[in-house]
Write a structure and sequence with these properties.
Shape: globular
Order of helices and strands: EEEEHEE
Strand content: 35-45%
Strand order of the largest sheet: 1-3-4-6-5
Number of strands: 6
Distance between the termini: 52 Å
Number of helices: 1
Largest sheet: 5 strands, mixed, barrel
């Protein structure tokens, strides 16, 4: 069976790192994701999605992401059925994040430059081409 969710959005509030009684790090936050479809004459709609992350992923988010930060999330969807204080049956839906990544520009994620993951991409002049063989341009054998 497949249960995979890939999302990109902005954090709607400052995430707060917590710990379970056994000391496991957990963080809960919400992201806003604009829908791709926009009906003519209407404003674009936004979905607000609850996300939970555990252990090192939770600590990473707490350190580098803040309210308004753009984040990419890969995880799975989990649902829970519960009864609220009025006795009504309810269902909660959340994404449990397995991997998260930075998105957006450097100015949007100004703390991203402080991370060990931020490295400039090599230019083509710096790329190692030793594994490539030059192709000779010989058009004499072509039938057209």
């Amino acid at each position: 069976m497949i249960n995979s969710a890939v999302l990109m959005g902005r954090l709607t509030y400052e995430p707060e790192l917590r710990a379970t009684p056994s000391g496991v790090s957990v963080i809960r936050f919400q992201i806003a994701c604009d829908r791709q479809f926009q009906a003519k004459g209407e404003e674009r709609k936004t979905d607000f999605i609850d996300v939970t992350a555990w252990r090192q992923t939770a600590e990473f988010i707490s350190r580098y992401f803040h309210k308004g930060s753009m984040i990419a999330i890969e995880g799975s969807i989990q649902t829970e059925n519960f009864t609220d204080k009025d006795g009504s049956k309810r269902k909660s839906v959340q994404v449990v994040a397995n991997n998260v990544s930075f998105c957006g520009s450097k100015t949007e994620n100004d703390t991203a430059s402080d991370t060990p993951f931020h490295q400039p991409a090599p230019s083509y002049a710096e790329a190692d081409n030793s594994d490539f063989e030059e192709i000779a341009d010989d058009d004499d054998d072509l039938p057209f």
